[in-house]
Design brief:
The structure holds two protein chains of two kinds. By secondary structure, chain A is of the alpha+beta class. Chain A folds into three domains: 4-51 and 156-232 and 336-378, FAD/NAD(P)-binding domain (3-Layer(bba) Sandwich), CATH 3.50.50; 90-152 and 234-323, D-Amino Acid Oxidase, Chain A, domain 2, CATH 3.30.9; 395-527, no CATH class. Chain A contains 15 helices and 23 strands. Chain B has two domains: 6-104 and 261-426, FAD/NAD(P)-binding domain; 135-251, Rossmann fold. Chain B is built from eleven helices and 15 strands. The chains are: A alpha+beta, B alpha/beta. Chains A and B meet through helix 7, helix 12, helix 13 and helix 14 of A and strand 4, helix 4, helix 5, strand 13 and helix 10 of B.
Chain lengths: 548, 437
């Protein structure tokens, strides 16, 4: 189903339009493709640009919710088991610990095993000494400890695999940088979605039989564009920080009511300390702050004292789209982690559905329920197959895995090729595979897009140095052919900086200083001409050229 | 290995081996002052070789740095360069580039205007002086000459195509070609420093010229990444030009790069030959500011080293060089525990936008000095009568945004040495005996 050119814009036809390229949207895409349905997925930015890319990658055992929300806890446990079976390459089944330290509520700790039992979560009490033997980083002040089957998941890998699989199954399409502007509604259904390519400014019209709103935190806005006001979300900003090296072998949770700095999650070669919770009204300009970082560190030290001296390489924030039940208190910590599927039929639309709330751990289930509704509406009788069908990997989508690139580099048979990202050992061949064939490769592959699809920019330099080498390579390959490429690099490092500045102290500060010297003093990225320079010698020589 | 403690004595101790420290040693030598110098010369390898004086005034790139410095006296009276007479700055720059030339690394004479020099990305950087191996780029760009830029298979981060694409609007006659470097063309990574050393061998220059010659076509000039030798770049440059028959110029590569390695190796070989007791790979562990002498203690592979001097210049640089250290919420000076002028709390260090043209507050943090370039203590008095400071450690300047790194280093080193020399004149005790070990 190719794009046709009509008037000034492109026109696409598909069976199902899915809005939102996070875990849920891509999950719906794959779910439907497994039923033989063609989908077109759009995102206003790129894959995992929202909460799916701004989380700690925890595959919940359910332990975190066992006390407050047994249903969500049980759902997490079941979904965790399914994902471990169908996508083992995306998951590190590292296990988890819940620990209470001196001063934590002993009642809360004592009731934990009972809550886990009720949710069917395997939970074993161990002594503080045993806990410290498992995780030597734990504080001497641990007073109670339990093991749970927590795991971690690479949210980028799983999203890429979803899109890649859907592409293989039904030639489904993903369009990045495609922002929904309005729906054309007539006769009780959405006839088309009018979008804009945010890079070219071009209009894109999409005709679909069914429309799925999986826009995460933006789902309320999308629903309103369709005239539906039933979707009500609470926006809860969460900030996390990433350490330079992995701290614990397992997920380490604080055994108390959820609060700041109560979880330390390993992510390959690093660890993530989270998470703050702050209700926000605005989804734009969400960035970590120094105050949030300081709070995470101060709280994290209680469980793991070495956090006081840990080098952190980056902070980042995401927005949890939490379902706001009627009359519920606007408290992000207490709002439901469950999800809802809105069929919008009572609001007069027969081909629109919104899936909202939920968690990364439960994205497959959210996709299943949405897929069931959409398939039924399309008269498709195929059952959901995601519970048992393994996710296939591929050459272009395996580069997000920490440690994969160095193993690949060490095992390569042919000499030659260069390492473009030294922190994460990403070679030119990885960039080439992504540019040629990763999901989204049909549109221009910028540095940002490559970063989403690989480890580029995720190591200790945070892209300060590798971004320049990757840019040069993109110029060599003629992916870039004008000053626009360098502006793209400037924007990439400016974006990474927002996460680096709040953790810049100690050993990390020299790195940031060196980066600024390179970006500004040497390369002049702080004063790139935003317009193409006119060929006018009088004007172009602000620093008049001296005849040597 | 038998460890042995040693003691050097000198009239001046220079702490730091970046551009400011090296300039201070050269200026002191020129005044006949005996010098001991300690530093871990890491960051000098990150220089491009360009010597900028003052290149950006916060609004636009600066054409006439001397005019801009006059305005700086009004706009930023605390800026180190606003407190040095233009004649002193000119004498410092001229003296420094002249000394480099004498030691075998030729530089263009600092002039009245800034030059616009090429960066590896194809942007332009204002600079007052540049190595002779790079100088022909100025005329080639001014004349928009038909110019070939050659890059190399396996040389990471230097793309002639990138350079040409970014320069195309102002230099349409620039075009790019990629070749293999002689005997290093397997496709594996090649390193600029290795290529530079290889080009010191005449046969390699010959092979390289043979590879380039057929590509020249109508080109009137040739650009290459900075690989024209480490120790005799001017010679390598001249030889390659005569082999090819067109002006050849170097373009800096991503640091750490050959132009920085040249400066480091030049200083490390030449300064000791000129009598400086140089400990180039070490940091001072402890600095004792006694009433009669200043004592620095460190340890090298052969044991403990003590340096005693009548005067000292602190040129330890900023965070990257270790002169400043950032605690989570405070910045401190690492060697003499001098007070650091700084924004209050980490949240005030950086602006929200990385490329905010006003720059980040943390980059103007540093130590303050009196009119004699002596660091001030918490009471606002000189921390020691014969301790001076120079270089990027000084507060109230943003060398990265103002493109004044070399300017601050060279001009403040000149003044610090001048002030140190003045105190020697009035020191009642005889100058310490200078020993070379």
């Amino acid at each position: 189903m190719d794009a046709q050119t009509a008037g000034h814009g492109q026109v696409f036809e598909t069976e199902v339009l899915i809005i939102g390229g996070g875990a849920t949207g891509t999950g719906v895409m794959r779910d439907l493709a497994l039923r033989g349905i063609h989908c077109l997925l759009i995102d206003r930015r790129d894959l995992n640009a929202g909460a799916s890319g701004g989380n700690h990658g925890l595959l919940h055992s359910g332990g975190r919710y066992a006390a407050a929300d047994a249903d969500t806890a049980a759902e997490c446990r079941r979904e965790g088991d399914i994902l471990k079976a169908v996508a083992p390459e995306c998951i590190d089944a590292c296990g988890g610990l819940f620990v209470a330290v001196e001063g934590d509520d002993p009642e809360f700790a004592a009731r934990f095993p009972e809550h886990c039992r009720a949710a069917g979560i395997e939970c074993k009490a161990i002594t503080p000494a045993e806990a410290r033997a498992l995780e030597p980083c734990l504080s001497e002040k641990v007073v109670a400890a339990y093991t749970v089957p927590d795991a971690t998941v690479d949210p980028f890998r799983i999203t890429l695999e979803n899109v890649n699989h859907a592409r293989e199954l039904t030639q489904s399409i993903f369009l990045s940088h495609t922002e929904l502007e309005r729906f054309v509604v007539a006769g009780g259904s959405i006839r088309s979605a009018i979008c804009r390519d945010s890079r070219s400014g071009e209009t894109i019209s999409i005709h679909a039989r069914q429309v799925v709103n999986a826009a995460g935190a933006w789902a309320m806005r999308v629903a309103r564009l369709a005239g539906c006001s039933g979707v009500k979300l609470l926006y809860s900003k969460g900030t996390l920080i990433i350490s330079n090296a992995r701290i614990g072998a397992r997920v380490i949770n604080r055994l108390r009511a959820p609060g700041d700095g109560d979880i330390l999650v390993p992510g390959g070669t690093v660890s993530l300390l989270g998470t703050t919770s702050q209700t926000v009204d605005n989804l734009d300009d969400i960035h970590p702050t120094v105050a949030e970082v300081d709070r995470l560190v101060a709280e994290g030290i209680a469980m793991v004292p070495e956090i006081a001296h840990t080098r952190f390489i980056r902070a980042f924030s995401g927005v949890r789209p939490l379902l706001l039940a009627a009359g519920a208190a606007a408290d992000g910590r207490k709002a439901s982690r469950g999800f809802s599927l809105f069929d919008h039929e009572s609001e007069g639309l027969a081909n629109f559905a919104t899936v909202a709330g939920g968690k990364l751990t439960t994205f497959r289930l959210m996709a299943e329920k949405t897929g069931d509704l959409v398939a039924r509406r399309l008269g498709n009788k195929q059952p959901c197959k995601t519970e048992t069908t393994p996710l296939p990997s591929g050459d272009a989508i395996r580069w997000t895995e920490p440690g994969f690139a160095p193993r690949y580099w060490a095992a390569r048979r042919e000499p030659g090729g260069l390492i473009l990202c030294e922190c994460e050992m990403v070679p030119t061949s990885a960039i080439d595979a992504i540019v040629d064939n990763a999901p989204g490769a049909q549109s221009q592959m910028s540095l940002n897009a490559i970063a989403v699809r690989s480890r580029v920019g995720k190591g200790s330099c945070q892209g300060a140095f590798c971004s320049l080498r990757v840019s040069s390579h993109l110029y060599d390959r003629q992916v870039y052919d004008s000053p626009e490429g360098l502006r793209n690099t400037r924007d990439f490092v400016a974006q990474r900086f927002k996460g680096v500045a709040p953790v810049a102290w100690g050993e990390h500060l020299p790195q940031l200083e060196l980066a600024e010297a390179l970006h500004c003093s040497l390369l002049g990225l702080d004063h790139l001409a935003d317009d193409r320079v006119v060929d006018d010698s009088a004007q172009q020589a602000p620093a008049g050229v001296q005849k040597p | 290995m038998i460890k042995q403690s040693r003691c050097h004595q000198a009239e001046l101790l220079v702490i730091g081996s970046g551009l400011a420290g090296m300039a201070a040693s050269l200026f002191a030598l020129a005044r006949g002052i005996s010098v001991a110098q300690v530093g871990n010369s890491g960051v000098i390898a990150f220089t491009t070789g360009y010597l900028d004086l003052f290149g950006h005034d916060g609004r636009s790139f600066v054409d006439d740095p001397w005019q801009a410095l006059l305005r700086l006296r009004e706009d930023e009276p605390l800026h180190p360069l606003a407190n040095i007479a233009a004649d002193d700055i000119r004498a410092a720059f001229t003296g420094f580039t002249h000394a480099l030339g004498e030691m075998g690394l030729g530089y263009s004479a600092p002039g009245a205007r800034n030059l616009l020099a090429l960066t590896p990305a194809g942007t332009l950087k204002p600079t007052l002086s540049l190595p002779l191996t790079m100088q022909p780029m100025i005329a080639a760009m001014a004349g928009k000459l038909d110019t070939l830029v050659v890059d190399f298979i396996g040389l990471n981060g230097f793309s002639a195509r990138e350079l040409a694409a970014n320069l195309a609007p102002r230099w349409p006659g620039l075009h790019a070609q990629r070749i293999g470097f002689p005997d290093m063309d397997s496709g594996a990574e090649v390193y600029a420093e290795v290529m530079a050393r290889a080009l010191e061998v005449p046969a390699t220059r010959q092979s390289l010229a043979e590879r380039i010659r057929p590509l020249l076509g109508s080109a009137q000039a040739l650009g290459l990444p900075a690989i024209l030798g480490v120790h005799r770049p001017d010679h390598v440059h001249r030889e390659l030009q005569s082999l090819l028959g067109v002006p050849v110029f170097e373009i800096p590569t991503m640091p750490p790069a050959v132009p920085g390695v040249r400066l480091r190796e030049l200083f490390e070989t030449q300064l000791p030959q000129r009598g400086v007791a140089l400990e180039p790979q070490h940091r001072v562990k402890r600095l004792e500011l006694g009433s009669h002498k200043i004592t620095a203690r460190l340890e090298d592979a052969y044991g403990e080293v003590t340096i005693e001097a009548a005067t000292a210049i602190l040129a330890t640089g900023r965070f990257t060089s270790g002169g400043l250290h950032a605690e989570p919420n405070a910045i401190r000076e690492t060697l003499a525990n001098l007070p650091v002028v700084q924004p209050k709390g980490r949240a005030a260090w950086y602006r929200a936008d990385y490329f905010d043209p006003r720059g980040h507050a943390i980059n103007r943090a540093g130590i303050t000095v009196d009119e004699q370039w002596r660091p001030l203590d918490a009471a606002g008095k000189p921390a020691h009568p014969r301790l001076f400071a120079a270089g990027s450690l000084l507060a109230h300047q943003d060398w990265m945004r103002q493109r004044c790194g070399a300017g601050v280093a060279i001009a403040t080193a000149y003044k610090a040495v001048e002030c140190a020399a003045q105190t020697m004149r009035y020191t009642s005790s005889a100058p310490p005996h200078f020993e070379r070990t």
